Amino acid sequence: MVSVAEPARRKLRMALIGGGAPAFIGPIHATAATLDGRAEVVAGALSSSPVKARAAALAFGIPLDRAYASWDGLLDGEVRLPSERRADFVAITTPNHTHFAIAHAALQAGFHVVCEKPMTTRLEDAIALAELAAKTGAVFAIAHAYAGYPMIQQARAMILAGELGQVQAIRIQYIQGGLRAQQPGVQPVRGAWKSDPALAGPAGTMADIGTHAFHLVRHLTGLVPAELSCTLRSFYPGRTLADYGHAVIRFPDGALGTITVSQVTHGRLNDLSIEIDGTEGSLAWRQEDAEHLVLRRWGSPVRVFERNARGDVLHEPARSLCRLPGGHPEGFLEAFANFYRAALDEMAVRDLRIPDIKRDLVFPDVSDGVDGVQFVQRCIESHADRGAWKRWAEVPPSGAPET
Amino acid sequence: MVSVAEPARRKLRMALIGGGAPAFIGPIHATAATLDGRAEVVAGALSSSPVKARAAALAFGIPLDRAYASWDGLLDGEVRLPSERRADFVAITTPNHTHFAIAHAALQAGFHVVCEKPMTTRLEDAIALAELAAKTGAVFAIAHAYAGYPMIQQARAMILAGELGQVQAIRIQYIQGGLRAQQPGVQPVRGAWKSDPALAGPAGTMADIGTHAFHLVRHLTGLVPAELSCTLRSFYPGRTLADYGHAVIRFPDGALGTITVSQVTHGRLNDLSIEIDGTEGSLAWRQEDAEHLVLRRWGSPVRVFERNARGDVLHEPARSLCRLPGGHPEGFLEAFANFYRAALDEMAVRDLRIPDIKRDLVFPDVSDGVDGVQFVQRCIESHADRGAWKRWAEVPPSGAPET
Amino acid sequence: MVSVAEPARRKLRMALIGGGAPAFIGPIHATAATLDGRAEVVAGALSSSPVKARAAALAFGIPLDRAYASWDGLLDGEVRLPSERRADFVAITTPNHTHFAIAHAALQAGFHVVCEKPMTTRLEDAIALAELAAKTGAVFAIAHAYAGYPMIQQARAMILAGELGQVQAIRIQYIQGGLRAQQPGVQPVRGAWKSDPALAGPAGTMADIGTHAFHLVRHLTGLVPAELSCTLRSFYPGRTLADYGHAVIRFPDGALGTITVSQVTHGRLNDLSIEIDGTEGSLAWRQEDAEHLVLRRWGSPVRVFERNARGDVLHEPARSLCRLPGGHPEGFLEAFANFYRAALDEMAVRDLRIPDIKRDLVFPDVSDGVDGVQFVQRCIESHADRGAWKRWAEVPPSGAPET
Amino acid sequence: MVSVAEPARRKLRMALIGGGAPAFIGPIHATAATLDGRAEVVAGALSSSPVKARAAALAFGIPLDRAYASWDGLLDGEVRLPSERRADFVAITTPNHTHFAIAHAALQAGFHVVCEKPMTTRLEDAIALAELAAKTGAVFAIAHAYAGYPMIQQARAMILAGELGQVQAIRIQYIQGGLRAQQPGVQPVRGAWKSDPALAGPAGTMADIGTHAFHLVRHLTGLVPAELSCTLRSFYPGRTLADYGHAVIRFPDGALGTITVSQVTHGRLNDLSIEIDGTEGSLAWRQEDAEHLVLRRWGSPVRVFERNARGDVLHEPARSLCRLPGGHPEGFLEAFANFYRAALDEMAVRDLRIPDIKRDLVFPDVSDGVDGVQFVQRCIESHADRGAWKRWAEVPPSGAPET
Fold it and tell me: What percent of chain A has pLDDT over 70?
């Protein structure tokens, strides 16, 4: 939607790495980043095939002289451009095993980074990125875009304001079916690399969508795990990586979290559902019905908060992320755009010297990326040890509770 | 989302008339039109206040030399530009009473037109526009954007394919609350002009949202009314125009339609719901849950069609309008963008000589605009005559059933 | 459920007329009447076939000497029994055209009456019954059992308490599919008599289920119509009686009601939905989701009231009708039992001299029966006159607003 | 509802132990058992307080000479009655710690038994009951009444028929809030004994409702666990017993089950939800929306099965358990009555020599009771061992997969 940005604020320049057809995630990054007029796509390394890369550049409206054949070519090329043309940030939407190398090089070359999850496939790499990002001062955002839904921010604000009392239990189910083919005996096409350990890393579904769930636990409650136990399964015939998994998380104060993820449940689309129990109330939210947030508290009727309903019903962070009047459904694209808006605003504060941008969304950053990778790491360790509890380590830079 | 447009296809140039803050409809037009990279906003007459118009132009990214102070100034200015810079079409988002004059002048000046509903406030004006558009050969699209929802196109395709048998009954309720203030005694801010007959025309809610409902009846079923009866109410204190209304429509073959509209129902957002009964099945759809379409038929379980679920479940017109995988909610913006995509593709066929663009959505055009205005006209006549049946007139150019 | 009745209170004795298999309505009357231990079935005239009547008597646990071959035989036989054995009331579940004769005779014989809707097929008969009931002092209840749902009573209590402000609009849709056969070309089995004017009276669906809808309008709001307009349709091939209909109701103070009924919508079960708009809030309820009532009011989140949730959330009339804790679904049977409980309590007050029974449900009585028949009458008149407005007549005994 | 029982079949005589006010479970047993005319309540030991027991007997319609002051008094008294008056079975609805002694004595005295869950508080007691029941030949039913919902039987029939392929994952959440008081600092009234280890046994919520969830896993899928891991929590201040818990179950063939139970989630009523993933389809069901069962399978729209919809849509076991036409909601009472119907039919087969009663519901029996107690036992062991996996033991009589 049309930006209400400051007159003097220029559009930030985005270089997109990966994301050519048939993946949907590249177009989502490009569209979400540019939706509000805060950014423009100026360069891309969209495919390892030159023919495909060129076609994709056309589709993204990227001039051919900045349609690079490789990500390192892109970094080299952009660095050489004068600063008033050079990309401000790179968005990394390639398979997991490449994230580290690209992000590391991009940071060293002086770019801000927006990176798909999981940030890396090894915990030490994640820590290295965090350290490097701290050194360069770059903005480093992880695309946990579900945090961009206004009603997720409403939930977070309610919890921060103490409206739930003390959080005691968190239940997340994230159920998809995309890694089960319609016809048995074949491998599903979309996301084929997600089943290949060489490309996806060792963790499968728990990395691919479990990190989203875990991020929301951290983002919504601020709680840091004490230890976790995990059981994984590869249900689909011929698959090595886990396509189903379950984690139990103990928090230091006794709170208990459970995360169940599936990518092989027949007919389920993208059913991320969250329930949070506090001493003063309980919340429920489903991504496929993202415009509503349900609050229950004994003594009151069930209260359903609607996105951008009239009146002072929502907390400011939720309200400020709404583009359309309530009842005109917003969706995944707007949530993703909210994630980008937050990251772009932070880049604008740092680079464009616009200090007073109001920021309602605490965007997921490199420390959330480290947390996600540690989560996957502990899950793999626990599963390999028959579900034994694995302690959460304080990792520098600390994944401190957001405030 | 990133366009899959033909390499040689340039972006069409849009001039936006009306739609500056605080209206949300201007940004929606601009964002929807440009979402797929098929268009760009190049000019605007965004406010009758020069200061506001200038600020709005900045927000829309319109260069100041094309930020016009009035719509006639815009038409004059654009016509004088060389054809390779001149706007290709104007989008009219001003209050209803101005639609006719602007659209008429725009057609005469050689522009394509995208116009908000109701197309005009008088039926003779609507007919005049249709005749003029036929003469100039311009594309003339009416922003009945709800037709752009994939599941509406799925419903239409199912009906066209005979999967419902013969349509016998249609029930539409379109319930909003936006014209009721939270505090009694004050007039609601947003859409204040919608309550002013001088600006909105004589019909109020039946024009503002009833035309959407009526368009969907025509668009989904192809049925043309035989006659209709209408009762209107102005429930909110101090309001002249109707903010509530009800129409009964008889069709020549005995089918019966009912349309109920409200803009004063406490707490209701944008609850457009449609039920269609056929001899072989019945359909139900709600705009606030736009991703699902429900088919019922004795002898089968209830079948819920989901947007862009895997497999050959949807008809092609529905599938082709999807941008994101199922379960990643799309919403009003994407529906609006689908409406624009269809209109822009038609402009491209005519102006850019790209003949073979596949078009899945039959966009609402000037004849739908005439139909909508006749609907409002008959409603007013019937209400003034205590609900007497008013015959539907065949109006040239005929609002023929779409095929 | 187990009664909490006064120790000295004996069970009232029920004689069931009609309702043998395969109808479900007979067993519902018997089970609902006896569910709380306030009544017992002692006699029946369950079928005009003696063999069937005898089998049915066994199924109902009726001793064979009180399994009568005809309704007049039943009245004769019961009257001759000593008062301590004689039935206290008759429940009439036969086809519509017989209601009047049976009810009239039953009143004259000194029985209380529970009668299915529509009370009669002619308005003058309904008035005659009302006059006779007033004379005999009998309890005369009409089985508008939907009023027995706790959440309907919650809605009524909220409206009575002024929580909705002034009621301005009422929208009821009552959509079934039972009169459409699964296979075209055959007539549906269940309720076959409902399509036969000789048995069902002249009105079809508007009598069969429209009277339920109309009763709820009256029961919930207390409003009395000023005039109404109606359009009917017989959509199913070979059917004389209307199986679809639509009524618009004008109330004296400007309020507007719409009632749409269908019994030919493919796959729809018993979808009675009600929306009520007031100046201070709006309510919505669906019979197929009867445990919830939705209140909307600008400035608050949507509030969903749940049956028998903990805390002082519900008004007393709703609370007192609950048998099971919230979340243990109650349904149609319990609603029907609540209707019976109210009627039986009234009989107990009159016959058993138990004066202080607390009565939470104002049961639909003979005046509601008259109202329902007038509603059907006006609908038929209006339809025959092409939807012309027909004035509501004040009928003695007055269908006064309940308080 | 009225029974369709054989003419010669007499009502079975029920003796109710426990269940006086304010518990709702006693009335539910009495009402459910008698709903179809297959049983009558003839005796009771309803309270340990003689005054309360007498009042309760009146409410249940029990003659005072069979209103016993204690359960052993009841057993003694009934045994002395002539066989044509003596109770046929006892229903045990007392706190958990008493189940074993009462059931054991009842079996020894020659009665059939219907017993609340958990069957006992110790596994060895459960085994002893199973052995004794096998010896006496009595019917021994455990009140896992959720199995009585028609749509649960539809799910079971679909799984048995292979329509889901091989079951791979089961997710059950059973979320209540009843053990959290509305006002902090007080203990909730209802079910107070459920928080007292002396009365409820060592397991709290996992016994109280976890056994329902576990029974459904077994009943629906026939799977027998290989091992399980459990984590428990007592979240409510001042409570010893767990009011929250989580179990992970591994099955021999690799299938994975998760069960999460809460009785302290603010505002949640009785939200038992079940999801089952198979290689050919997935199912979802919620108790609070018990009339619907959702089947998903790639390549088809989502299919929602409705209770007793017209046509050959449901499997016979589901259809045969329906009393009312679809759309007239049935609820918990009818499910409970279905459970009783199955147990009573089995008693009738054994005692009344009516051999050919068709039985659609495999009622939960003593082996299910043993399974439930073992489930609780393993949960407690695992929790005490920090969630270590505990092997499932084959317990005689074997909890063999039902067929």
Answer: 94
Chain D environment of A254 (Cβ under 8 Å): 233, 235
Closest to D304 (Cβ–Cβ): which among B301, B311, B313?
A: B301
Tell the CATH topology of C150-328+366-391: Dihydrodipicolinate Reductase; domain 2 (3.30.360)
| ipTM confidence | 0.94
Residue A163 at interface with chain C, using a CB cutoff of 8 Å: no
| Cβ <8 Å between B231 and C250 | yes
Q: Which residue of B186, B333, B339 is the best one to mutate when testing the A interface, meaning the one whose CB has the most A CBs within 10 A?
A: B333
Delimit the domains of chain B by residue range. Answer: 12-145, 149-327+366-391
Q: Do C328 and D327 touch (CB under 8 A)?
A: no
Tell me if chain D has a CB within 8 Å of the CB of C268.
Answer: yes
- Cβ-based contacts of C60 with chain D (< 8 Å): 2, 37
Contacts of B305 in chain D (CB under 8 A): 301-302
Scanning B178-197 for CB atoms below 8 A from C yields 180-182, 184
C253 touches chain B (CB under 8 A): no
- Give pLDDT, residue A403: 38
Residue A274: pLDDT over 50: yes
Cβ within 8 Å, pair D324-C1: no
Q: pLDDT by residue (tens digit) across D245-290?
A: 999 999 999 999 999 999 999 999 999 999 999 999 999 999 999 9
What CATH fold (topology level) applies to the domain B149-327+366-391? Dihydrodipicolinate Reductase; domain 2 (3.30.360)
Going by pLDDT thresholds of 50, 70 and 90, the confidence category of residue D7 is low
Contact present, A304 and C316 (Cβ < 8 Å) = no
For position B396, what pLDDT does the model report? 65
CATH, range C12-145: 3.40.50.720
Q: How far does C51 lie from chain D, in Å, by closest CA? A: 13
Its pTM stands at: 0.96
Query: Could you tell me the CA-to-CA distances from D87 to A50, B14, B131, D14, D34 in Å, in that order?
Result: 86, 86, 89, 5, 14
Q: Is pLDDT above 90 for A2?
A: no
pLDDT score at B402: 38
User: Which of B298, B299, B304 is closest, CB to CB, to D301?
Assistant: B304
The whole-number pLDDT of residue C184 equals 66
